[in-house]
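We treat protein structure as text, and this decision shapes the records that our systems exchange. This encoding replaces a full spatial description with a residue-level series of whole-number codes. Below, we set out a record of this kind in full and without editing:
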Amino acid sequence: MTDQPEAVQPAFPEVPAVPAEPPDDILYHHRVRYLDSLRNLWGHREIIYTLAERDFKGFGSFLSSEAIFFSGTSVEHGAAAIEAAWRPYFTSPTAPFSWVPDNVQVLPSGKLALSSGPVYIQGKEVSRYNSIWRLESANTWRVVFDKGEAVCSAKP
């Protein structure tokens, strides 16, 4: 398991730059759209800080109105239900857990993405999350699905 001090904010990889003189082919143009989408999604990585900063309103701004969140045996449908289920996580002076993406993949269309990574409680990795993001308008990514799974402690 990986330990991460709670006070340390994660580092995010840099998105590659687009060449100054574009080649005249369709694959290049798909790559540019993909990189622009990836830049925009990384630009909205602030959702992971909303819990640490106790910013409930900010958290809600990242939810699609049609989002579905899985939590244990419960499933919440819609931003209002998710906000109601998550509100208790924002009431104490310190965040009960933290999470950070370690893998982000964006479709070549630039309209749908997956982010996944570890979830920590007191610096100990306890689970992994998977979030599906949708580009809902220009530069506005929102979560449409979120699901976590406990980390298996079995040794191979």
